[in-house]
């Protein structure tokens, strides 16, 4: 189990060693977390500052380096594709502020997501998140040269000198882009290289790519509504020491429709869940092979709910099974 703050730590059962280590922040992470507190100190009193200041976020190691990453990140498909009008972008400022105040770091985007990358660049310039940011975008085009041009454009849109993570989106022309990404990594233009899929597509091919190519990260879909990756991809990622990013953690929002009008079970308090969003996210982040889930939201109040999953205890194997059975019977 994951411990929260010191005051009630004694009430928690012992946590497994692997998970304990997963929670231990490195020096680098401490610096980033302190940077968060800097953001929090400047934030209004109602904005979740207490949470960030008094509790430790759940961090997971990136196997390739041991660097620690907060287990809840932010997706930007649809929700950040709002165009260039200031009036459309303004409501996203508090969304991103809440994200960083609550200890978030990874923002995931793609050139496929319309104006999302330009919107991220704008929002980063208008918030204090840059010191904490773990930037993750994708390359999504045919041809190596076109891929390089797309990546240079993404750097300009985000307004950053390098990416933390570049992923090959939906495995599109992945062998060609992998050559570029290896070169970019050697030049220091990206720190980690990854590959993605979603909706259960092309899993057999992804398995081969994960088995034979040097990926630091993989991204695919996992949620209470879609558990296919438990069979092969999650165990393979653990075996190959590949960090795992989980997309569509709310099944694109459909999980909320499935529980509409249904009360959260009382036993969800055993792993510090206050709402269904945290129930769905903690199911994902409690899987030992998962590094980070990336829910998307356009609403600051949803962001506060989602980031609550970054704190408190996680369900153990028995509780995870109970979550599955409960969801199946809904
Ligand atoms: N192939 C790929 O690489 C790939 C494919 C798919 C997705 N992705 C990545 O994964 C991210 C997440 O997936 P997704 O955006 O498809 O779906 P998702 O995160 O599973 O669901 C997003 C939906 O959930 C709603 N929501 C979020 N928090 C909520 C809350 N607390 N209460 C009620 N509703 C809530 C959002 O509406 P509100 O705006 O109203 O909160 C939105 O409609 C994407 O944004 C993208 O970055 C990658």
Summarize the structure in words.
The chain is of the alpha/beta class and 330 residues long. The protein is 41% helix and 13% strand. The strands form 2 sheets. The protein has an 8-stranded parallel β-sheet. A two-stranded antiparallel sheet has the order 1-2. Helix 5 runs parallel beside helix 13 (300-307) and helix 9 (203-212) packs parallel to helix 10 (233-240). The longest helix has 15 residues, at 27-41. It is globular and about 55 Å long. Mean pLDDT is 87; it is low at 1-31 and 33-53. The structure holds NADP nicotinamide-adenine-dinucleotide phosphate (NAP).
* Average of pLDDT: 87
Residue stretches low in confidence (pLDDT < 50, at least 5 long) are: 1-31, 33-53
* Helix fraction by DSSP (H/I, runs of at least 4): 40-55%
What is the molecular shape? globular
The run of helices and strands is: HHHEEEHHEHEHEHEHEHEHHEHH
Give Rg in angstroms: 19 Å
- Mind summarizing the main beta sheet? 8 strands, parallel
User: Helix tally?
Assistant: 14
**Ligand kinds:** NADP nicotinamide-adenine-dinucleotide phosphate
Report strand %. Answer: 5-15%
Task: Say what oligomer this is.
Answer: single chain
Computed structural class? alpha/beta
Instruction: Count every beta strand, where a strand is a DSSP E run of 2 or more residues.
Output: 10
Spatial ordering of strands, largest sheet:
3-4-5-6-7-8-9-10
* N- to C-terminal distance: 26 Å
């Amino acid at each position: 189990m994951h411990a929260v703050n010191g005051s009630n730590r004694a009430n928690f059962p012992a946590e497994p060693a692997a998970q304990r280590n997963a929670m231990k922040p490195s020096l680098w992470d401490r610096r980033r977390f302190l940077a968060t507190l800097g953001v929090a100190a400047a934030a209004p009193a109602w904005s979740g500052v207490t949470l960030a200041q008094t509790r430790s976020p759940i961090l997971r190691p990136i196997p390739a380096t041991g660097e620690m990453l907060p287990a809840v990140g932010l997706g930007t498909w649809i929700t950040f594709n709002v165009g260039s009008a200031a009036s459309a972008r303004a409501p996203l400022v508090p969304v991103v502020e809440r994200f960083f105040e609550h200890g978030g770091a990874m923002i995931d985007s793609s050139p496929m997501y319309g104006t999302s990358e330009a919107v991220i660049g704008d929002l980063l310039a208008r918030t204090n998140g840059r010191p904490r940011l773990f930037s993750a975008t994708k390359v999504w085009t045919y041809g190596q040269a076109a891929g390089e041009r797309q990546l240079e454009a993404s750097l300009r849109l985000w307004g950053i000198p390098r990416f933390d993570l570049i992923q090959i989106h939906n495995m599109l022309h992945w062998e060609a882009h992998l050559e570029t990404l290896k070169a970019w990594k050697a030049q220091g233009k990206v720190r980690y290289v990854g590959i993605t899929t979603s909706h259960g597509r092309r899993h057999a091919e992804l398995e081969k790519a994960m088995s034979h190519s040097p990926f630091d990260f993989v991204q695919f879909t996992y949620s209470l509504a879609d558990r296919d990756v438990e069979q092969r991809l999650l165990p393979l990622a653990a075996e190959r020491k590949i960090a795992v990013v989980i997309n569509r953690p709310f099944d694109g929002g459909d999980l909320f429709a499935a529980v509409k009008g249904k009360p959260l079970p009382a036993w969800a308090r055993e792993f510090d869940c206050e709402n269904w969003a945290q129930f769905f996210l903690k199911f994902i982040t409690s899987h030992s092979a998962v590094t980070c889930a990336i829910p998307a939201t356009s609403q600051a109040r949803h962001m506060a709910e989602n980031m609550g999953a970054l704190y408190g205890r996680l369900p153990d194997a028995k509780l995870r099974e109970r979550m599955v059975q409960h969801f199946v019977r809904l």
